[in-house]
Specification:
Helices cover 38% and strands 15% of the residues. The chain is an alpha/beta fold and 305 residues long. The protein has an eight-stranded parallel beta sheet with strand order 2-1-5-10-9-6-7-8, with helices on both faces. The structure holds zinc ion. The site of zinc ion has 7 residues, from loops.
Length: 305
C-alpha cells in the first residue's frame, strides 16, 4: 500500500510579510526535492478537502473560530499574534491543512491507507484551544486526533512531536483528555515558553538544552517516548513532523541531521507496528532552512514507507 501524500497549490497563497521564515518556498522546496529524487511518484498523491466545521469545533473555541473568519482580510495582512498573520489566502490554506489530517483519519481507519503525510502550511502545533500563535491558526494534528477519537472503537491515540519548539497548543487541547498521549521533545528554554512543565499522566514533555546533538536527542527519546508508548498502546499514531531541530535551521539550536529524523521515524514505525496496526498520520510543522527541510522530509518519508 503506497503512502498517501496530501498537498495543495492553495498553500502558496498563505503569505506573511516579506522575510518571514514560514513562507511558500517551504512546501515548494519539499515538493521539488521529492520530485527530483523520484520519491514523489511512489506516493498516492492527493489534494485534501477543506476541514469540516465540526472537526474544528472539537478542538477550538467557537468564538476563536468566528474571529478568524471575521478578521480574514481581502487584501493586506491582519495580525493574529506578533508572529502570525492572516493574508487573503491564509484561511483557505489553513482549512486544507487541517482538512488533510481529518481526511487522513478516514482513509486510515477505513483501511484504505496505512501511512499518510500531509505536506501543508500553515503548521498547527502552537495553536491552542482559543488562540492562534507561532505561525499556527488551526491545530492540524489535534483536529486529526479528535476526529479519530470520534470513531467507535478508537479510544487511545498518540501524538509525537519532534519539532524544535514545544507543542504547547496540542498539550493545551488534550491536557485533560486521557485518550490522547502527547509526547513533545523541544529545545528548552525556548519559544513558546508555555505549558512545557505541565504534569499530567498523558503528557510527556522532553526538554532538550540548547546544543543537544544526535546522541543526546536519541537517548532522551528512548528514555521518555518508548516506555510511554508501550504503556499507553495507542491505536493510531500521529506525528507533528517539524524539522527545525536540524543543525542548519535558523530558528533553533539543536544539532540533528537527516539521519536523526530517519532514526526517530523508524522508532515511530516500530511502535506503530507493535501497537497501532502500523497506522501513522504525519503532518508538517516547522523547518525553515529550505535545503535541510527538503532533505529531512525525504528522510522522514523514506523511513515511513
Ligand atoms: Zn518549530
Amino acid at each position: 500500500m503506497p503512502l498517501t501524500f496530501f498537498t495543495h497549490k492553495a498553500y502558496d497563497a498563505h503569505k506573511m510579510h516579506d522575510g518571514h521564515p514560514e513562507r511558500p518556498e517551504r512546501t515548494q522546496a519539499i515538493l521539488a526535492h521529492l520530485q527530483e529524487a523520484g520519491q514523489l511518484a511512489q506516493f498516492d498523491q492527493r489534494n485534501p478537502r477543506t476541514v469540516s466545521e465540526n472537526a474544528l469545533k472539537r478542538v477550538h473555541e467557537p468564538l476563536y473560530l468566528r474571529k478568524l473568519v471575521e478578521n480574514a482580510p481581502t487584501s493586506g495582512l491582519v495580525m493574529v499574534d506578533p508572529d502570525t498573520h492572516l493574508s487573503p489566502g491564509s484561511l483557505p490554506a489553513a482549512q486544507l491543512a487541517a482538512g488533510a489530517v481529518e481526511e487522513a483519519v478516514e482513509l486510515v481507519l477505513s483501511g484504505k491507507s496505512k501511512r499518510v503525510f500531509s505536506c501543508a502550511r500553515p503548521p498547527g502545533h502552537h495553536a491552542e484551544h482559543d488562540a492562534g500563535m507561532g505561525f499556527c491558526l488551526y491545530n492540524n494534528v489535534a483536529v486529526g486526533a479528535a476526529a479519530a477519537l470520534s470513531h467507535r472503537g478508537i479510544e487511545r491515540v498518540a501524538i509525537l512531536d519532534f519539532d524544535v519548539h514545544h507543542g504547547n497548543g496540542t498539550v493545551d487541547i488534550f491536557k485533560d483528555n486521557p485518550g490522547v498521549l502527547v509526547a513533545s521533545s523541544f529545545q528548552h528554554p525556548h519559544y513558546p515558553h508555555r505549558l512545557f512543565d505541565l504534569e499530567r499522566p498523558n503528557i510527556v514533555n522532553t526538554p532538550l538544552p540548547a546544543g543537544t546533538d544526535s546522541p543526546g536527542f536519541r537517548k532522551a527519546i528512548e528514555r521518555d517516548w518508548l516506555p510511554a508508548l508501550d504503556r499507553f498502546k495507542p491505536q493510531l499514531l500521529f506525528v507533528s513532523a517539524g524539522f527545525d531541530a536540524h543543525t542548519d535551521d535558523p530558528l533553533g539550536d539543536i544539532h540533528l541531521r537527516e539521519e536523526d529524523f530517519s532514526w526517530v521515524t523508524k522508532l515511530i514505525v516500530a511502535s506503530a507496528n507493535q501497537h497501532s496496526e502500523g497506522r501513522i498520520i504525519s503532518t508538517l510543522e516547522g523547518g525553515y532552512n529550505l535545503d535541510a527541510l527538503a532533505r529531512s522530509v525525504a528522510a522522514h518519508l523514506a523511513a515511513l514507507v
